[in-house]
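Private note to self, pasted from the team thread so I don't lose it. Backbone tokens:
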């Protein structure tokens, strides 16, 4: 799945398949300007920062179990968001400090350090770098991903795929080749 935020005409947090199909709103109320998003891949939660409401909130992948982690002036101007173990990590764009926030109670907020021009924070951990299983976009005997001549996108599962073409090309009737 692909998770993303939108604060155009109607602010929301959404998810869809990697090929853009099955687009679903998971948060569409009491939300104004969601800017940063992070996933807890293990427990299947979506965290986001709303810079208009000065809040960090969480919801499960289906849009249930929503609650506010922290809200208020203490977390104004946040950008970037990452999850690692019991904490959320984010950047305060006012003073360029990296903040650590307890994601279960929101009361434990700590500035860890400052970095010039910091805009984003990422955490890499071995548990979320799962072994790749066989999938529909693997290269075929001719080296074409998923048998697609240009772009292969996973669809509703790792066993399904959709072929797409680069700009200026049209997908052929076979659903794989681009002309």
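Design output:
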């Amino acid at each position: 799945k692909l998770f993303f935020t939108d604060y155009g005409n109607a602010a929301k947090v959404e998810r869809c398949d990697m090929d853009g199909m099955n687009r679903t709103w998971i948060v569409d109320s009491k939300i104004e300007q969601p800017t940063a998003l992070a996933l807890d891949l293990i427990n299947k939660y979506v965290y986001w920062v709303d810079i208009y409401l000065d809040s960090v909130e969480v919801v499960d992948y289906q849009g249930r179990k929503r609650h506010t982690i922290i809200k208020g002036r203490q977390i104004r101007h946040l950008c970037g968001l990452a999850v690692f173990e019991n904490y959320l990590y984010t950047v305060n764009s006012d003073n360029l400090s990296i903040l650590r926030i307890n994601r279960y109670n929101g009361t434990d907020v700590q500035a860890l350090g400052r970095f010039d021009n910091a805009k984003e924070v990422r955490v890499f951990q071995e548990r979320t770098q799962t072994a790749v299983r066989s999938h529909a976009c693997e290269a075929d005997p001719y080296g074409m991903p998923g048998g697609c001549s240009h772009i292969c996108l996973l669809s509703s599962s790792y066993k399904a795929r959709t072929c797409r073409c680069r700009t200026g090309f049209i997908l052929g009737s076979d659903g794989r080749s681009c002309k």
